Amino acid sequence: MFAATELSITILFLAATVSYSSAEINLSFQSVTAQQFRTRRFACEVTGENFVAWETPSREASHGQPAIESKNITVGQSSGRVSVERTGNNSYYTLVIVDVTVSDGGKYTCRGSNESKSFTLKVDFLIHGVKTPQRLTYGMQDGTIELGVSAHPPPQYQWRKDGQLMTFPEDGKSIDLYSGSIKITRVGIGDQGNYTCRVVWMAGKPRETEDTVDIEVLVVGSHSIIINSVDFKSLQ
């Protein structure tokens, strides 16, 4: 009588162990680099447990950029350009991001009822073009030397004026860490010169990208400054 009871308990324990171990979330990548303004799809396979949601990145407000709250998106739901579809043999839950932008960069998590897997989305480096001419008012007003870079994570910037390395903040100048543009407080005659910005994205990584932008800043009359982009060269 006692032997039969022990055997029954052992069999039930093994069955429970096998059932639990079959639960799995399969995400075949840990880091993905996406080009801006392209649509990307990221499939997560969930077996042996229930799919809960894809969790989007969160980000604190920084350097003039607004805070971003994390959201949980499940099948049939969408949040702006982001949605989730059930695909394949119904065990794949695909995250869809339409027209990827820098704000989409960050950590995404595929959550099941027991487990979760995450990957990091990086958004490829892009210079949107330097407008020419750019007019700034001389005197009491502020101005900006526009660079127009975007990427996630943000690149590193090295600015030089007339060949001399600049450090920020410097003499009423500061740098926008997201776009690389220089913000000038009370534009003056001393802001005239030749500026060069070396931009490096993913420094030291296999996907490292480098570009250089040369900008000439001219003082015209006593009321305005015109910025002319005189050269752009990609060193990829």
Q: Give the % helix.
A: under 10%
What distance lies between the first and last C-alpha atoms, to the nearest angstrom? 78 Å
SS content category: mainly beta
As an assembly, this protein is single chain
* Quantity of strands, as a count: 20
Question: Helix count?
Answer: 1
Low-confidence parts lasting 5 or more residues at pLDDT below 50? 1-20, 230-236
Share of β-strand residues: over 45%
Domain Ig-like: 66-214
Pfam family, one: Ig_3
GO molecular function, one term: axon guidance receptor activity
GO cellular component, one term: axon
Molecular structure report:
The protein is mainly beta. Strands 2, 4, 5, 9, 10 and 13 form a six-stranded mixed sheet that branches. A six-stranded antiparallel sheet has the order 11-20-19-18-14-15, with no helix packed on it. The longest helix is centred in the first third of the chain and has 20 residues. The chain is elongated and about 70 Å long. The N terminus and C terminus are likely disordered.
Give the arrangement of secondary structure elements.
Blueprint: H1 2-21, E1 24-26, E2 31-34, E3 40-47, E4 51-55, E5 72-73, E6 78-79, E7 82-87, E8 92-97, E9 106-112, E10 116-127, E11 134-137, E12 143-145, E13 149-152, E14 156-161, E15 164-165, E16 173-175, E17 182-184, E18 193-201, E19 209-220, E20 224-234
Parallel strand pairs: 2-10
Antiparallel strand pairs: 1-3, 3-8, 4-5, 4-9, 6-7, 7-8, 9-10, 10-13, 11-20, 12-17, 14-15, 14-18, 16-17, 18-19, 19-20
